[in-house]
Predict the 3D structure of the following.
Amino acid sequence: MTKSSEQHGNGLPVLILLGPPGAGKGTQAKKLEERFGLVQLSTGDLLRDAVARGTEAGKAAKDVMEAGGLVGDDIVIQIVADRLEAQHCAQGVILDGFPRTTAQARALDDILSQKGTGVDAAISLEVDDAAMIERISGRYTCAGCGEGYHQSFKTPERDGVCDKCGGTEFKHRADDNAETVRSRLEAYHADTAPLIEFYDAKGALHRVDAMQSIAGVERSLTDLVAPITGVAVA
Ligand code: ADP
Ligand code: ADP
Ligand code: ZN
């Protein structure tokens, strides 16, 4: 495996998936994990876990998440900083849902520069608002293994049975409802969309048409990520 010269410092490729709720960040992050050996770091998943465990961060985040707002920068930055220290991220990370504000993006730069590295690519998954709403409202996951599905766009091969683990219980996120979707879209446009310009100014931005099928987006991302990780793709 040869490393590309595009990669920063110490051999830790750092990729960001930017995009509105429902754009396909989680779906594609899992595919990039499998293909390139990167570790997905989803702040949404980490926060849901903190809420479920009843930690201090979880208690502070719960109501904000239910209302579709953004959890405070300090809480989220601490969670990410802790995770980036973790041993299993040594192969490189794909940040899914972080950063979501300019303050988070600056904090990420600081954390990475202390490690002698930086953001290799910020990939904006571009979808229109109508598609986000359709994707969020049909989204569900396997209760056993967390595999993501969609009632129209990605159904299990056998009705009611998870393709990955054979589980038969599925769940729907409490915040994937009509009331919170509007707040989440507003938060995206007000606080997160400016990061497109932030990374463009650094020369790190890549745009991907996420209105394509899941397989189409996966192909575009593979073409983009392969030279960054230095992994040859057949
Ligand atoms: P995000 O992590 O950006 O919120 P997800 O990856 O959870 O988005 O995807 C949202 C929903 O849309 C899921 O149900 C997923 O199966 C579905 N989905 C993801 N990508 C696409 C796509 N390109 N076309 C159609 N549906 C998609
Ligand atoms: P989506 O799939 O809709 O993009 P996530 O699973 O990434 O949603 O996030 C769910 C919720 O968790 C968000 O609506 C927000 O309340 C909170 N959250 C996740 N990541 C962040 C972040 N980087 N900053 C602030 N809040 C966050
Ligand atoms: Zn499963």
